[in-house]
Amino acid sequence: SYVLTQPPSVSVAPGQTARITCGGNNIGSKSVHWYQQKPGQAPVLVVYDDSDRPSGIPERFSGSNSGNTATLTISRVEAGDEADYYCQVWDSSSDHQVFGTGTKVTVL
Amino acid sequence: EVQLVESGGGLVQPGGSLRLSCAASGFTFSSYWMSWVRQAPGKGLEWVANIKQDGSEKYYVDSVKGRFTISRDNAKNSLYLQMNSLRAEDTAVYYCARCQYSSPIDYWGQGTLVTVSS
Predict the structure, then answer these.
(1) Which tens digits make up the pLDDT trace of B85-105?
(2) pLDDT digits (tens, 9 = 90+) for A62-92
(3) Strand, coil or helix: what is B117?
(4) Contacting residues of A for B95, CB less than 8 Å apart
(5) CA geometry: angle B47, A47, A89, nearest 5 deg
(6) Is A11 helix (H, G, I), strand (E, B) or coil?
(7) Which residues of chain A are within 8 Å of residue B105 when distances are taken between CB atoms?
(8) Do residues A89 and A24 touch, judged by C-beta distance below 8 A?
(9) Residues sharing a CB contact under 8 Å with residue A56, sequence separation 6 or more, in sequence order
């Protein structure tokens, strides 16, 4: 089955840039989606199809995808960005949705 | 406004059964694939199952195949998850989610907690 690997944690100071990676075999050939989940809440889609943002998501959230790594970038990080972040793809070989292992973003 | 409201969670003994329901509103339910996604306490998200708009296609994560059944009733705008032969490792918050076949999940319910314990 397809596996997506994320770093367990990323720490960033307010106003700086956080980069969260999502590694998978030839992930650049797939569409990658990113979710933000705050404690006790359901996930929220923040980036879809590698780099598009849903309505209402700040421009500070951006994404890229190439080769074996997709990246979610959060610019000008705010305290409210502290959350868990998950990448996700559709594995067409198995018709399964696959989530990454998740990354906890801590704002220092 | 899109709303997904899960119900049916609770405490069940190992080997027992439970049926989760999800009431959908604010969109044309019959036009969307639907999913169940779960999250064990302190753990990450795990996709559980998908069902096509008309119920003709269903897909499951390997760990629940043969034990869980996803279904829907478009007349009632409802999604279901029948869970049999429950195990301790099935303990999780179960989320109802809206999606299209290979597209991202754009709406989630608030989740319902299933605890499998003696």
Answers:
(1) 999 999 999 999 998 878 899
(2) 999 999 999 999 999 999 999 999 999 998 8
(3) coil
(4) 42-43
(5) 35
(6) strand
(7) 33, 35, 43, 45, 88, 97
(8) yes
(9) none
Contact A9/A55 with Cβ under 8 angstroms?
no
Q: Tell me whether residues B102 and A90 touch, CB distance under 8 A.
A: yes
- B30 phi-psi bin (left φ>0, alpha ψ -120 to 50, beta other): alpha
What is the rounded distance in angstroms from the CA atom of residue A49 to the CA atom of residue A58? 16
Listed residue (A67, A66, A72, A68) closest to A85, CA to CA: A72
Greatest distance between any 2 Cα atoms in chain A:
41
Supply the DSSP symbol for B105.
P
Q: Which residues of A touch B110 (CB under 8 A)?
A: 42
Count residue pairs from A and B with Cβ separation < 8 A: 56
DSSP string, B33-101: EEEEEEE-TTS-EEEEEEE-TTSS-EEE-GGGTTTEEEEEETTTTEEEEEE-S--GGG-EEEEEEEE-T
| Closest Cβ opposite residue A102 in set B37, B44, B105 | B44
The minimal CB distance from A43 to the residues B45, B62, B101 is found for B45
Q: Over the stretch A29-64, which tens digit does the pLDDT of each residue have?
A: 999 999 999 999 999 999 999 999 999 999 999 999
